Amino acid sequence: MQHGPAAIRAGRPVLVDWIHSVPRAAGPVALDGRLDSENWALGLFTTVTRPMFIKESWDWHGPQDGVFRFAVQQHGGVLHVAVETTDDKLVTAADPAALQDKIIVVLQTSGSTTTAEAVVGTKTKNTICQPRGESSGMVAQFALPLPAGEKTFRLNIGWVDVDRPENTKPSILWWRPPAALAFGQFLMDE
Length: 190
Ligand SMILES: [Ca+2]
Prior knowledge:
- This protein has 190 residues and is mostly beta strands.
- Helices cover 0% and strands 38% of the residues.
- It is built from no helices and 12 strands.
- Strands 1, 3, 6, 7, 10, 11 and 12 form a 7-stranded mixed beta sheet that branches. It has a 5-stranded antiparallel beta sheet with strand order 2-4-5-9-8, with no helix packed on it.
- A hairpin with a 6-residue loop joins strand 8 and strand 9 (138-145).
- It is globular, with a radius of gyration of 17 Å.
- The mean pLDDT is 92.
- Residues 66, 87, 89-91, 101, 161-163 line the site of calcium ion.
């Protein structure tokens, strides 16, 4: 059987991904929404200027419209995830269920799939979310327990970027395509 060149459809980007590592934190990670360099070194962060998948992409106009960065680390069987948005317009609401900027973390382990969400004002034992102090955007932090001995998992980060409250279909920016199961794979550092 003859193999031709790989078919790449014109105009469509080729998406690739790799196994991401989960470094061990130097010590306990405080769930305080403060991404100081002592606990969250700059080198831990991935900046997402071109999300691989955007729902309602017509409402997103490129990195100047909003970018986010995230980091992961592990401590004592808990996965710590920090997400920070840089946003031209942060929309918050007193009602947590109301349409507003929101961070979504989807964690698929060998045992289950967990979807954790945070809006500004969220504070639970696993999640905190607050506005950024120095510029427009928000910080969300998650502490997600992993199954005992878990070595790998899949993680995806999404940002519901609301810029106009009257728009009921805001963009959702996903780091990796939610349907691409081979993407967003992580391996725990020993
Ligand atoms: Ca926004």
